[in-house]
Description:
By secondary structure, the chain is mainly alpha-helical. It has four helices and two strands; from the N terminus they run ααββαα. The protein is 47% helix and 8% strand.
Amino acid sequence: MTAGNNDRDRLIAEGRRAHEERQKSYRERALKMFPWVCGKCAREFSGKKVRELTVHHRDHNHDNNPPDGSNWELLCIYCHDNEHQRDIDAQWAGAETGAKPGKPDKPEVTHNPFAALAGLMQEKK
């Protein structure tokens, strides 16, 4: 065997290992488990368009990959971006009102426009 053959065999073996790792990845598992349909807009995917189908982690924890896929949802790239943007918008809205993320607070009322109404009504009599 020549040195070139050894390099080629090593590259082929590395390629096969990398392919097996990708097969084990959560995206590959999700694509095998679920129909190739976006969970939000119901667009169907096939062929090369499957690359536009992404795996959304419902709890936003990419390390939470249960074998049954219960934390995954297949979304097209547009719906996936929209889903994350909605979370960002909700966090900003919560920051403006003083609410803590995950714990919505009622806004504090600092002004009562009818506070002096009783006194004004007494004067009219």
